[in-house]
Amino acid sequence: METESLRLAVVMRRTPLNNRWQPYQWKPVEITADELLAGVERRCLRSDEADTRWLFGGFEVKLYRDEAEGYFLNTGSPEPCWFVMWRLEDIDGAEVAVPKTVTLSYNEAARLMDGGEQVDTLPASPAVVGRLQAFVQEYYRPEPKKKRRKPSFEGGAGVEQMARAEGDRHGS
Question: Pfam families attached here (predicted)?
Fold first, then answer.
């Protein structure tokens, strides 16, 4: 089961840093669901030393039932957010941060970061959070908690029995 897709565009911003090892920093600064902007492949919106911004469209986000736990974790956080995975690429001789994936799943973002990808967040709008909460309410079913058996190092009759059996095998 999946929902209708939401078409998006991401704006990435480069700001200068006062750091001799890293002269600037890239971050996503806006996600828009405007249909006109979502259809744009990529466009430089501004480029100067103080502020460079690029618009990247063409993202489609769907909610999937098998990611319901990740959406649940996102909606349960203090500030539900979008997760944007991006990579630095060369565009017309300039190094630009290009978004590759946009998701609302905490688990998917964690898998991307575990794989060494750069993932940043942006707050999700109340409308998107409401849609996400409705999806979670309908499809998320937590795993039932299983009763845990005591391990042998915690003692008990089972440990005594194991010790006797071990002793019998070794001639004690």
Answer: DUF3305
